[in-house]
Amino acid sequence: MDIISLPALPRPLIGISGRRTSGAAIGAPYGFADAPLEAYLSEYATSVLRAGGLPVHLPMDADPAELVARLDGVVIVGGDDVDPRRYGQTPGPFTPLVDPQRDEFESGLILAAIERALPLLGVCRGAQLLNVVRGGTLHQHLAAGEGESHGSYAYPRAHRVHEVRTAEGSVVHGLYGESTRVNSFHHQAVDAPGAGVTVTGWAPDGVVEAIELDGLPVVGVQWHPETFGGDPVFDWLVDQASAHTAVAPTPATESVA
């Protein structure tokens, strides 16, 4: 009997953004301390691998649209503040050094992913930038010691310090149930949601912890799921990327039983 054997589809290719720094950050030898350096926290990549995806780091000098055209999914990672001028405000007394190049690059990734309906996960700053790209605003500063102390860096990165309540029918509700406990390493959060942005998760003090984009496989979370060693949001991203992939199967091969 002839059996049609279909080749396995390749792992979906998930692009992960990083940050630009210099050789001094890794103790580069004399003459290379000021050399440009792309830095990537490896827990994002290992989370994608664990979920079944193939991670690739995205260099900031590349064209975002060209990169996204080759990808099956995107992760926009955490980091420093988004430039307040991108949402109609000016830097305040708690604004650290901003990175306009990174803002521009990651905004381009988000816009290109949305245009292609590509699965996208925004983490911490990535969720905030997603909201800003859609025309929303941010709370510029959440003071440490108030509410859930979102600005506190007192705990290990994987320590779950507070609860998040999720909206029924949302992606995060399907992943975590009515509530979950998360870590907290941020002093900013979504304020006014942007166009098509729906808030789907809240801390007990009302701070926005999760957002989704209506009708698209796009999720932003304020916590850092990459630290937990197997958070279901990465399974969701890889599953969505697998379903979206435009890689056509190769012609079926035949074998004889």
Automatic annotation (TrEMBL):
PROSITE patterns: GATASE_TYPE_1 (PS51273). Keywords: Hydrolase. Pfam families: Peptidase_C26 (PF07722). GO terms for molecular function: hydrolase activity. It comes from the Bacteria. PANTHER family: GLUTAMINE AMIDOTRANSFERASE PB2B2.05-RELATED. This is Gamma-glutamyl-gamma-aminobutyrate hydrolase family protein.
